Amino acid sequence: MADSPPTRAAQPHVVIVGGGFGGLYAARALRRAAVRVTLVDRRNHHLFQPLLYQVASAVLDPSDIAFPIRAAFRRQRNVHVVLDEARRVDLERGVLQLRADEIPYDFLILATGASASYFGHDEWSPYAPALKTIEDALEIRRRVLLAFEAAEHDPDGAAAWLTFVVVGGGPTGVEMAGAFLEIARNSLAHDFRNIDPRLARVLLIEAGDRVLGTYPEELSDKARAQLERLGVDVRTSTMVTEIDDAGVMAGDERIEARTVLWTAGVKASALGKSLGAPLDRAGRVEVREDLTIPGHDNVFVVGDLAAAHTGPEARPVPGVAPAAIQGGRHAARCIRRRLAGQGNVAFRYRDKGSLATIGRAAGVADFGRLRVSGFVAWVLWLTVHIFFLIGFRNRLFVLLSWAWSYFTFQRGARLITGVDKDLLPPT
Amino acid sequence: MADSPPTRAAQPHVVIVGGGFGGLYAARALRRAAVRVTLVDRRNHHLFQPLLYQVASAVLDPSDIAFPIRAAFRRQRNVHVVLDEARRVDLERGVLQLRADEIPYDFLILATGASASYFGHDEWSPYAPALKTIEDALEIRRRVLLAFEAAEHDPDGAAAWLTFVVVGGGPTGVEMAGAFLEIARNSLAHDFRNIDPRLARVLLIEAGDRVLGTYPEELSDKARAQLERLGVDVRTSTMVTEIDDAGVMAGDERIEARTVLWTAGVKASALGKSLGAPLDRAGRVEVREDLTIPGHDNVFVVGDLAAAHTGPEARPVPGVAPAAIQGGRHAARCIRRRLAGQGNVAFRYRDKGSLATIGRAAGVADFGRLRVSGFVAWVLWLTVHIFFLIGFRNRLFVLLSWAWSYFTFQRGARLITGVDKDLLPPT
Asked: How confident is the model at residue B9 (pLDDT cuts 50, 70, 90)?
């Protein structure tokens, strides 16, 4: 990196890896600090993951929920954005290794997040894509829309094409299952001549004994009831033991389904391994209470890459966007304290509550003492998500897309795109 | 096709191939006719090609300019949409062959358009992509945005990364050249730290002696002047004789450029060959004055696939959207006449004028007696394009995107997306 030699620069160098919630908010929180910041990401955009399922379900466009990282820091002149892939941290020498360069750091914040985990069954991934990137979302959109085309093309084999299985009953799974059903019931209802899309089945399969397992039980029950009222076939305490190109084994039952979505598990980014610190089963870095790693009080790990604990009871910090934001800000705060000659402080996670939406005008919300469901939860969900979107244009366009979809029952991004061979139903 | 056996159905069967302007308007013009219509396309969406360059230049999203063909005919119950690829026309038996099925027709309308032609140099296509599909546009967007990232990554080699060559001075070439320059000058101006994007060069290379060769000479001159005022290096009467991964040979000069766009030529869709009718040099079907082929007055060819002539002077019909719309409507009108016991009539192309936009708030327009340039032409261009977009949502979102880009100088779709290995600058 010709532009940031530590010898020339007087200010301490903070290197942040990852432009998700953790990294983005860490860099922002350093805007008035006397530091040089280098933010490394392998994508040119910050992605608002909580709305990614709406790209997969053809409501939003990719650029509605993504924002160029460079543009986010246009006016914050102490931030230097580097589009590159971080390969390894060399703690001895205090450098971050990229593909071909390396960057020396005084402080390091790792926020590279997590990707899908198939729990040792990576061979399932071609049949059951996960939802982590824009490309994943467009692939799922393609599969869902093409499934209806395939059913129209071959009405005799329609049943398996009109069966959609979502594996995993967390917020993404719940939201996707609701969205699949509404595509079939509303958006496509009158568009076909040989099949009736309204006959589509959606199954939500969860290994645990309830959906939204991290929410209060009362809200899990309400979410399940709302899903079932929509028409989703919810199967809890059911393990998926096999996935192939024609269906899944769920418990003892074989379900013929051509479209399967995987939302059941995540594993932390591989970058954490190079720290040499202990990792938990999901590959997350076991951080200390100040979010640093043992022996290196200038190396912070935040967001989904960290196995953090909070409070006197050392409760685990959940892998959600607000935790990543708070973690990023905490790391920035510690760095500012260090510059002022003070020490790191312990991270305290403030649980702002949990939200999930379940199809049209329904949802559940948990704000500790306040628990709501149905329409009120849905409106809260809309408001919070608009608020945390980066960029005025994104907020405006997402709001308008939602309004349009709500009133017309249509979806504005119903495109089958991709590589040529995948655009047509099988013959 | 289980659903459309001619023995069961009493009404004549009109098969339309292609959901572009020609096919879409033909099907619409048959909405009150006592016919069954089958519309075959290999994509699930109608694409508004005249605005595709705005997807390539990160202003619009793909779904802003595309509309699901099924949704367009939701309420027109005599239209059956089939997502499939037409392989061959069997005139003897009166059937259209798809990948695995075949469809018998009473009337056939072919409107499969054209793709890029490299004039025998297909080996140039990886280095100089053309702009015909949504995937093409996203690929060009990726290359343009990544070029600036590569320059930032390697400031010493920046010159070739910051040189953009557009081959072909037709409307798409002129519009793209203006857009490239504005990305560099406005949208990205302050986003980099190692390079100044405003130093980017854009060259427009045209083999003929003027840009917009099909427009009146006066407007070609004005377009050239507007391009040069923007800062585009316009080279007319210049042949491109070589394109590789590092640049182009333009006349006698080697230009080092990492990003090249091809807008120089088109060839008609291969489906025309199976008709056995004479083809012109670009592979277009030489149709009779009623747009049918010799010996088959029930087989129409419209839009860019047809080499049609109009009027007493038999002037060639240009390959533009209004000509395709008029051709599609003409074919539908002939079919309605035939059902009423009358014969086909000759196609008369009504030239509604030509428009091109040149960057921000500039353009040229030719409406026969009325020729305007600059801001007025630009406003006309905006109005006409909004009017011909399919769907209220598309119109609203395109208008808002334009307004936002106009006032902020930003581009709302600045995403580098695609396959993993192509997302990072070379090391």
From this structure: low
Buried b (16+ CB within 10 A) or exposed e, A341-367: eeebeebebebeebbbbbbbebbbbbe
Encode pLDDT of A62-113 as tens digits: 999 999 999 999 999 999 999 999 999 999 999 999 999 999 999 999 999 9
CATH number of the domain located at residue range(s) B122-264+353-418 in this protein: 3.50.50.100
Is A82's Cβ below 8 Å from some Cβ in B?
Answer: yes
Other Cβ atoms closer than 10 A to A208: 15
Q: How far apart are CA B167 and CA B162, in angstroms?
A: 16
- Chain A nearest-CA residue for B147: A83
Q: Is the Cβ pair A414, B68 closer than 8 Å?
A: yes
**Mean pLDDT computed over A320-333:** 97
Instruction: Mutation target for B interface from A145, A393, A410: give the one with most B CBs within 10 A.
Output: A393
Q: What dotted CATH number matches B13-42+84-116+266-339? A: 3.50.50.60
A421: confidence class by pLDDT, cuts 50, 70, 90: confident
* R_g of chain B, CA atoms, integer Å: 22
Any residues with CB less than 8 A from the CB of B353 and at least 6 apart, and which?
A: B365, B366, B367, B368, B370
pTM above 0.90? Answer: yes
Mean predicted lDDT score pLDDT of chain A: 94
Closest CA to A72 of B403, B424, B190, B417: B190
Query: Given CB atoms, is A7 within the 8 Å cutoff of chain B?
Result: no
Q: What is the pLDDT of residues B145-200, one digit of tens each?
A: 999 999 999 999 999 999 999 999 999 999 999 999 999 999 999 999 999 999 99
Q: Is B175 a catalytic residue?
A: yes
Q: Does domain A122-264+360-422 have CATH number 3.60.15.10?
A: no
Asked if residues A232 and A202 have their Cβ atoms less than 8 Å apart, the reply is yes
Binary contact (A2, B194; C-beta < 8 A): yes
The ipTM value here is 0.92
CB neighbour list of residue B122: distance below 8 Å, 6 or more residues apart: none
- Which one of B48, B79, B417, B422 makes the best mutation probe of the A interface by having the most chain A beta carbons within 10 Å? B417
- The sign of the dihedral angle between the CA atoms of B415, B420, B421, B426 is positive
Same fold flag, B13-42+84-116+266-339 and B122-264+353-418: yes
A247 backbone dihedrals φ, ψ, rounded to 5°: 165, -165
Q: Looking at the complex, does the CB of residue B63 fall below 8 Å from at least one CB of chain A? A: yes
The candidate with the shortest Cα–Cα distance to B170, out of B346, B39, B49, is B49
Question: pLDDT digit string (tens) for A371-395?
Answer: 898 999 999 999 999 999 988 899 9
Alpha-carbon separation of residue A89 from A83, A156, A279 (angstroms): 17, 56, 15
Q: Which two tokens stand for residue B28?
A: 């619409």
Calculate the alpha carbon distances from B295 to B15, B276, B299 in Å.
Answer: 18, 11, 9
Contact with chain B for residue A194, Cβ under 8 A: yes
Every domain of chain B and the residues it spans? 13-42+84-116+266-339, 122-264+353-418
Task: Give B183's DSSP letter.
Answer: I
pLDDT in tens, B48-72: 999 999 999 999 999 999 999 999 9
Q: How far apart are CA B79 and CA B223, in angstroms?
A: 42
Start-to-end CA distance of chain B, whole Å, equals 52
Q: At B268, which helix (H) or strand (E)?
A: strand B266-268
Rama region for A120: left / alpha / beta (φ>0; ψ in -120 to 50; rest): left
What is the nearest CA distance from A344 to chain B, expressed in angstroms? 31
Please check whether residue A397 is in contact with residue A418, taking contact to mean a CB–CB distance below 8 angstroms: no
Q: Is A3 on the interface with B (CB under 8 A)?
A: yes
Distance CA B404, CA A95 (A): 41
